[in-house]
Amino acid sequence: MRRRLISFAAAVSFVLCLAAIGAEVRSRFAWDRLNRDDLTDLGSNWRRAWTRIDSSAGRMDLSILRETRSNRAQLEYLQANSQTFYWSVRPGHNSMPTDNRLSRALGIFAHVERKPESFFIRMIVPYWLVAVVFGVGPVVAFWRGRRRLADMRIGKGLCANCGYDLRATPDRCPECGRFNRLAQNRCG
Q: Among 86, 105, 131, where does a domain finish?
């Protein structure tokens, strides 16, 4: 069961890695924006929950705003002019801040702002970093699977590399030329 769960997690991670690579390529040609804006009337006050994801120039920009306000005119304006959910595609690129060494070198940016009536967070992450993070799991799973296969072959008296039967030549595989691990332990 554990092995299946690890294999499933590695497969999902591989798909997310490929999706990050695809988003990287798409972001070089188009500026995508996914926006969600929820307005809740609380009587004397109103609450706004706003989330935006921009994809442009090889980076993903995630912005989240939660605020409580009392200006009724602003609420009426937003209710009349803002959409609850939309996705737009624009030509060109979004300008993204690079105000410190880390964001200039790696393309990473993070900003958090907390006030009594609002909370704002903005994170910018390059797609190559997302692809590397999601690519580690499949590589490790593949390496462990190859190691497990080699150990199983050695236990059955087969060559760890190609699976050739080594009962007649236990020291070296006549098929691929690789030395048997057990023969190396006897020599060294």
A: 131
Choose among 126, 34, 28, 129: nearest CA to 85: 34
Query: Rg for the chain (alpha carbons), in Å?
Result: 27
Question: Can you name the residues that pair with 125 across neighbouring β-strands?
Answer: 60
Is 81 in a helix, a strand, or coil? helix
Tell me: the pLDDT tens digits for 60-112?
989 999 998 887 788 788 878 877 887 878 776 666 665 666 666 777 888 88
C-alpha to C-alpha distance for 62 and 129, rounded to whole angstroms = 15
If 0-12 CB within 10 Å is exposed, 13-18 middle and 19+ buried, where does residue 5 land? exposed
Report CA dihedral (68, 74, 80, 83) to the nearest 10 degrees: -40
Backbone angles phi, psi at 178, to 5 degrees: -80, 140
Contacts of 60 (CB under 8 A, 6+ apart): 23, 27, 53, 54, 124, 125, 126, 127, 130
Q: Which pTM does this prediction carry?
A: 0.70
Six-digit token string for 52: 């935006």
Domain termination residue (choose one: 131, 148, 174): 131
Are 113 and 146 part of one and the same domain?
no
pLDDT tens string 82-91 = 778 878 787 7
Residues spanned by the domain of 52: 2-131
